[in-house]
Design a protein that fits this description.
The complex is a heterodimer. Chain A is mainly α. Chain A is built from 13 helices and 2 strands; from the N terminus they run H-E-E-H-H-H-H-H-H-H-H-H-H-H-H. Chain A has a single domain, classed as MetI-like (MetI-like fold, Orthogonal Bundle), CATH 1.10.3720. In chain B, strand 11 and strand 12 form a beta hairpin. The chains are: A mainly alpha, B alpha+beta. Chains A and B meet through helix 8 and helix 9 of A and strand 6 and helix 2 of B.
Chain lengths: 292, 369
């Protein structure tokens, strides 16, 4: 009797699960899990003198990554990501606050401002910045007309330019979790704070920021982690001057043709990411608010 | 007793929605004043204007004689107990209660002393390190009250503070609030839609209706001498009759109703041929099986309902209107369906001016012209 019932249960649960989750699981297995394993295996492989992958075990790739030149690039990647995240918070928070708390009918319109950039490929938008900032770009022309700059000024290929592009790309990822957190904030708490004698700045530090810290935190994770691995922004706006981990990986696979080294770099990047997410969880971060 | 809060000609409009209409209200120092009314009558808006969360569209609000309508909430010497408590979820009970003192930069040892004293007063000792989410509704309510009272405000504003509590706890908190108010001698302005709560706790009640204060008086006066038809029907149970004053003799008016003439005590403000409403509480209604001198009402007994010590008689008039008459249980009663003659002592009924008949008067005057 019970056997029959459980058999029935098995059927009714498995078939819908297979139909709904199955295809996605299969897709992920072939396109994410399998390549990841391949990358992990390759990172321990040797190359011959023509840089063909030879499937023999070595840890030399990881050893190479400890050299000063590489460590410098990791440090720069972390620094650029950190500055980008910081600027994103400073720009994103006031903006998210305004769109989350406004009672105006323009709320939806403001929200759309965050979404609209996603409608165009980010690569194209970054090229847009390059022609805008470049030597024959609009900005230089206007500055020259206003006698604020002469022909010698170069805005491209600087660390600042890379950060500008990064901030531009990642601000929406900061605004969205912040918006969610700020919108959840109970307005009567702000009234209570004011009622008890707190000026707006005190209310900000005593009530608003602590209660939206979850949003700030997930926003930072959403910006910092992808920022570490982004390569085309520093490629297009930074030239070769502001290489980041992403650029190194790209170069190993494309121009240098040293796939095992690129694989080892990728593994390092994945490990750093996992580490950051673990820290986030340890500090009480909610995976749901990351959209994971 | 001085005046502590004064509202003069205050109006509040949200777009075309006129929420508070030309409100004049004087609150005395140390009193427990309740704003009573059904939802949407403007009572909460009035309270929020005193607190500073809303700005009046026109008019002046004075606290301790100083106009405050331009001042921010943090600049006003009033504190609010919110309907939803609005406790800071990320702060302990101690820090919640200490918040106001911390903002005023009171020295830490004094904060600690005052918070612990206040927690004892609201019977929350030992809860310092807990968070609001770990407390029950009644406890949260007490924290909210303590957090406001610790600032020693001149006026405490309470916005339906007991609305979310169950009946038993609500009764208990009503008494506790009243006790605190007497002990600390702070002016309370209390908003509620619960008339029983208002009658139990208040020194004076302002009955609000459609953005207007219909009557501001002591609970007894409001119950016994309602100023408007709305007040009469809103507070307690009553029977109302609309009619026309046909004669006045030695302070007793004869009012002719649809169902016949009745007698009621009246003052000088009424004149002959004026339309008016009579309100008689069920417990003041009498009836007998023979006609009563001066009353021409005839009714049929519809039903008897026993409510403990009293008996409610439902009787119906020839025009279909039903009356409620209360009698002590255990008395001999005429059978259901029999004819009775309702009456009352003229001084037990209240005669109320009836504005809604003005329109007929105006129409009559137009016809005469």
């Amino acid at each position: 009797m019970s056997g029959k019932a459980s058999k029935h249960e098995f059927r009714s649960n498995t078939l819908p699960a297979l139909v709904t989750v199955g295809p996605v699981a299969l897709l992920l297995l072939f396109l994410v899990v399998a390549p990841l394993i391949l990358v992990a295996v390759m990172s321990f492989c040797k190359t011959d003198e023509y840089y063909n992958v030879v499937y023999e075990f070595t840890a030399a790739n990881y050893g190479k990554l400890l050299s000063v030149d590489y460590v410098k690039i990791y440090a720069r990647s972390l620094l650029i990501s950190f500055i980008t995240t910081l600027i994103c918070v400073l720009i994103g928070y006031p903006f998210a606050y305004i769109i989350a708390r406004t009672k105006s009918k323009k709320k939806k319109l403001l929200y759309m401002l965050v979404i609209i950039p996603f409608w165009t490929n980010s690569l194209i938008r970054i090229y847009g910045w390059r022609s805008f900032l470049g030597n024959s770009g609009w900005l230089i022309k206007i500055l020259t007309l206003l006698h604020l700059a002469d022909g010698s000024v170069d805005l491209l290929y600087k660390t600042g330019t890379t950060i500008l592009g990064m901030v531009y790309c990642f601000v929406p990822f900061m605004v969205l979790p912040l918006y969610t957190a700020i919108e959840k904030l109970d307005g009567s708490l702000l009234e209570a704070s004011s009622d008890l004698g707190a000026r707006p700045v005190r209310t900000l530090f005593e009530v608003i920021l602590p209660l939206t810290s979850g949003g700030i935190f997930s926003g930072c994770i959403m910006v910092f982690i992808p920022c570490l691995g982004y390569f085309f922004v520093s490629n297009i706006l930074g030239g070769g001057n502001t290489d980041m981990i992403g650029n190194l990986i790209e170069r190993q696979f494309k121009s240098a043709n040293n796939w095992p080294l690129g694989a080892a770099l990728s593994i390092i990047l994945i490990l750093v990411t996992i580490l950051l997410v673990k820290i986030y969880q340890k500090l009480g971060g909610d995976m749901d608010s990351l959209g994971v | 007793m001085g005046t502590i809060v004064e509202m003069i000609g205050v109006n509040k409009r949200y777009g075309s929605n006129h929420v508070v209409k030309d409100l004049n209200l004087t609150v005395n120092e140390g009193e427990f004043l309740t704003l009573l009314g059904s939802s949407g009558c403007g009572k909460t808006t009035t309270l929020r204007m005193i607190a500073g969360f809303e700005e009046p569209s026109t008019g002046t609000i004075k606290v301790e004689g100083v106009p405050v309508e331009e001042k921010e909430p943090y600049e006003r010497n009033v504190n609010t107990v919110f309907q939803t408590y609005a406790l800071f979820p990320h702060k302990t009970i101690f820090d919640n209660i200490a918040y106001g003192l911390k903002m005023k930069k009171v020295p830490k040892p004094e904060i600690k002393e005052r918070v612990l004293e206040m927690m004892e007063m609201v019977q929350l000792s030992g809860f310092e390190k807990r968070y609001p989410s770990q407390l029950s509704g009644g406890q949260k309510q007490r924290v909210a009250i303590a957090r406001a009272l610790i600032n020693r405000p001149r006026v405490l504003l309470l916005d339906e503070p007991l609305g979310a509590l169950d009946l038993k706890l609500r009764k208990q908190m009503q008494l506790e609030l009243k006790r605190l108010q007497k002990k600390l001698n702070i002016t309370f302005i209390y908003v509620t839609h619960d008339q029983e709560e208002a009658l139990t706790m208040s020194d004076r009640i302002a009955i609000m209706h459609d953005g207007i204060v219909d009557q501001l008086d002591t609970p007894t006066e409001i119950y016994e001498h309602p100023a408007t038809r709305f007040v009469a029907t809103f507070i307690g149970e009553t029977n109302t009759y609309d009619g026309c004053v046909t004669s006045i003799h030695e302070g007793v008016a004869t009012v002719t109703l649809e169902n016949g003439a009745v007698k009621v005590k009246c003052d000088d403000s009424f004149s002959i041929l004026e339309y008016a409403t009579i309100s008689v509480r069920p417990e003041k209604m009498r009836f007998q099986t023979t006609p009563h001198d001066g009353f021409e009402l005839v009714a049929i007994v519809k039903d008897y309902i026993y409510v403990g010590a009293v008996l409610k008689c439902i009787v119906s008039l020839p025009n279909g209107n039903e009356l409620k008459i209360e009698r002590l249980a255990g008395q001999e009663l005429p059978p259901i369906g029999s004819r009775i003659y309702p009456y009352w002592e003229p001084e037990d009924a209240v005669l109320i001016h009836n504005d809604s008949y003005k329109i007929f008067k105006i129409l009559d005057e137009i016809k005469l012209a």
